[in-house]
Specification:
There is one protein chain. The chain is mostly helical and about 240 residues long. The protein has 2 domains: about 1-150, Cation efflux protein transmembrane domain (Alpha-lytic protease prodomain-like), CATH 1.20.1510; about 160-230, Alpha-Beta Plaits (2-Layer Sandwich), CATH 3.30.70. Helix content is about 60%, strand content about 10%. The protein has 7 helices and 3 strands. It has helices spanning about 1-10, 25-55, 60-80, 90-120, 125-150, 160-170, 205-220; strands at about 175-185, 190-195, 220-230. Strands 1-2-3 form a 3-stranded mixed β-sheet, covered by helices on one side. A hairpin with a 5-residue loop joins strand 1 and strand 2 (about 190-195).
Length: about 240
């Protein structure tokens, strides 16, 4: 629901108060998804440690039946998000969340079988700790990337030095300053830059070529270029 809510909010049209719309909602959804997973796994690990110190008997048959249903439901839901997980951080968050739930259910089934047939009640908390470790390992990258994008970080697939080199290689460009690249949402990247062109600003063909090259090479879809003969603003560090 977090992923779908973020995606739906990102489709809201811009207005006078939100000129970019609500595209960043997908980044926030991915961050909350990762945070919830980390908190849940922390709680799972804490509970497992307590059960290791004070083992409790569990009903193997009931555990297996409920967990088997969980595997089917969570796996089916994860498959819905599988196609877009590589290109959209929000979708990846939903996929990881559902895949994690399916993995937990699978671990519970294995633990239930061992309890039922071998009487290994200690396997339940041990399985919980192993599952928590695997999910934290897989979720940490999502948490780090979504936090990075929330603070206007350059998306990982964009090399800012290569972007600058591309702009500087354009005909007539003597320098590039105030270059900024950030994620508007989990699937859309924006760029702004000042191009110093002593010979005069380029025409529409020049701007179209620059925009198309940035999109083809870096998947930057929202490009804003300001062309000046002589810089008149105090350049920022970028």
């Amino acid at each position: 629901m977090l992923a779908w809510s973020g995606a739906l909010a990102g489709r809201l049209r811009p207005d006078l108060r939100h000129t970019y719309g609500w595209k960043r909602a997908s980044i926030l959804a991915a961050f909350v998804n990762a945070l919830l997973l980390l908190v849940a796994m922390g709680a799972l690990a804490w509970e497992a440690l307590g059960r290791l110190q004070q083992p409790a008997s569990v009903e193997g048959t009931t555990i297996i039946a409920v967990a088997a249903v969980g595997i089917v439901v969570n796996t089916a839901t994860a498959l819905l998000f599988m196609r877009g997980r590589e290109r959209d951080l929000n979708i990846r968050g939903a996929f990881l969340h559902m895949a994690a739930d399916a993995l937990v259910s699978a671990g519970v089934v294995v633990a239930g079988l061992l309890v039922l047939y071998l009487g290994w009640h200690w396997i339940d908390p041990v399985a919980s700790l192993l599952i928590a470790g695997v999910i934290v390992w897989g979720t940490w990258s999502l948490f780090r990337q979504s936090l990075h994008l929330m603070f206007d970080g350059v998306p990982e697939h964009v090399d800012l030095r290569e972007v600058r080199a591309l702009l500087e290689s354009l005909p007539g460009v003597a320098g590039v300053h105030d270059l900024h690249v950030w994620a508007m949402g989990t699937s859309e990247v924006a760029l702004t830059a000042h191009l110093e062109m002593p010979g005069g600003p380029g025409d529409d063909d020049f701007l179209r070529d620059a925009t198309e090259r940035l999109h083809e090479r870096f998947e930057i879809s929202h490009v804003t270029l300001q062309v000046v003969r002589v810089p008149f603003c105090v350049p920022c560090a970028a």
